[in-house]
Amino acid sequence: MINEPKDRVLVALDFDTADDALALAQQLAGKVGGVKVGLELVNAAGFDIFARLQDAGIDRIFYDAKFHDIPNTVAGAIRAATKRGVWMVNVHTSGGKAMMEAARDAAHATSETPPLLIGVTVLTSIDQLTLASDLRVTGPVSKHVSHLAALAQEAGLDGVVSSPLELDAIRATCGPDFVTVIPGIRPAGVGAQDQKRIATPATAVAAGAHYLVVGRAITAAADPVAATDAIVAEIAAI
Ligand SMILES: O=C(O)c1cc(=O)[nH]c(=O)n1[C@@H]1O[C@H](COP(=O)(O)O)[C@@H](O)[C@H]1O
């Protein structure tokens, strides 16, 4: 699945029109491992965006759905997402083990080649202080992330989303093959913006990340293709 450094890079198509998303996806075809379709794009462009990307030859689509609901509802949503032929889809681990099991069962019952099912742990926009004050979760972020990753693994998920800072903890708990999908990626010189737990592409890959989710470092760059090439070169040099 990951044959060369570029395969690790998933570009977040966080745009408010299908045209912008399709244009960048086509510009980066062959240069990245896949594209991510998330809440902004799907709400702005509609669910046709999946077929439009697939018609344009883009077949590795990570649907960043972040489903979080009762097991029956999430199972239905995962069935529908699986039928769209997405390559990867996510749910919130904080929906609980029964919800994640229902998601896994739904994906496997719907397709012989189900999407990779990934659990979001603690959002990368949440720091230690906010985890304690807003969510009333005490203790280190990495401990809570490891707990949620273990739960996801027990539920039969393929991997988790976390920040680059918890990669050691996840590997120690879940082993090296449990897939890690890592946003909060900031090449040197790019500001953190709303992200709180961040690292450079090279640091994240050296720490064991399988996939990097990269949005604004590419989409807001003056030259998105050059920015992508620089990220791939950075991780290739590790
Ligand atoms: O599930 C995600 O992809 C995700 C989880 C998370 O904890 N943090 C996070 O930033 N993301 C997504 O990753 C992308 C990061 O975008 P940038 O901060 O612009 O690189 C966005 O599309 C987010 O929705």
From TrEMBL:
SMART domains referenced in this protein's UniProt entry, alphabetically: OMPdecase
Catalytic-site annotation from UniProt: 64, 66, 69
EC numbers for this chain: 4.1.1.23
One Gene Ontology MF term: orotidine-5'-phosphate decarboxylase activity
Gene3D superfamilies: Aldolase class I
CDD domains documented for this protein: OMP_decarboxylase_like
Cellular component terms (Gene Ontology): cytosol
UniProt-listed GO biological process terms: 'de novo' pyrimidine nucleobase biosynthetic process; 'de novo' UMP biosynthetic process
Recorded metabolic or biological pathway in which this protein acts: Pyrimidine metabolism; UMP biosynthesis via de novo pathway; UMP from orotate: step 2/2
Keyword Lyase annotated: yes
Keywords tagged on the record: Decarboxylase, Lyase, Pyrimidine biosynthesis
Annotated residues for binding of substrate: 14, 36, 64-73, 124, 186, 195, 215-216
InterPro entries in the record: Aldolase_TIM, OMPdecase, OMPdecase_AS, OMPdecase_bac, OMPdeCOase_dom, RibuloseP-bd_barrel
Family annotation (SUPFAM superfamilies): Ribulose-phoshate binding barrel
Catalytic activity: orotidine 5'-phosphate + H(+) = UMP + CO2
Domain of life: Bacteria
Assembly notes: Homodimer.
UniProt xrefs under NCBIfam families: PRK00230.1 (NF001273), pyrF (TIGR01740)
Family annotation (HAMAP family): OMPdecase_type1_B (MF_01200_B)
Task of the protein: Catalyzes the decarboxylation of orotidine 5'-monophosphate (OMP) to uridine 5'-monophosphate (UMP).
Protein name per the record: Orotidine 5'-phosphate decarboxylase
